């Protein structure tokens, strides 16, 4: 048996959280609170961002594919915004895989040979595995197999994170981010009651994660301001971030807890937990 196969060997090494995300700005809404909280608790935090966000909005809200959309300039701007966001959240290490943003499902960018979603999983996973070897995170967080909402780069990030975890055997606990269905319903009701949604808009019944599947709920309410500042740092994508236009009480409600599905644990931890490091410290 190698050291890596020993359950609980995480207790002997520096506590480390690694979040694997697809684009600059993805780090904030679902994991910004845990990144800020665990950093504040002295746990080492590592954010891996897989793409440069080339398919985001350009200056003046120019969409990808429209005249004047400059991929290189968009990437440069978004990576600068990402560094600012990382500073607001206090994240210890930012690692960029530097792949090309594939764009939303169905966009022209999907066909680009260098697009992240077109990179063979084992190739990108090997690079992520090298980062896992370097930081040896006990806890890894990424998206579910649907990338949480179907974006090809989020699905690819999920695939490489799962593959790298299997290749290295390093993480003790592995999580998917989740958006609880009941929470979304409450948010939607709040927005409707406050005239913030179109009258004819209906929330699909299957949106979000059924609450009973959620294993881990982390209170990050002391870090809501950090999340908001981090989100504001991604100003060039502001048009795509409706949270920035919600009233403060709705932002607080939306941002004060983060939800996860634990898919693997090699340490003893409660079925329902409020700490991703439960069993590790
Ligand atoms: Zn994304």
UniProtKB/TrEMBL annotation:
Coiled coil stretches, renumbered: none
Gene3D superfamilies, sorted: LmbE-like (3.40.50.10320)
Domain of life assignment: Bacteria
Keyword Zinc in record: yes
Residue stretches spanning the membrane: none
UniProt KW keywords: Zinc
Annotated Pfam families: PIG-L (PF02585)
Record protein name field: GlcNAc-PI de-N-acetylase
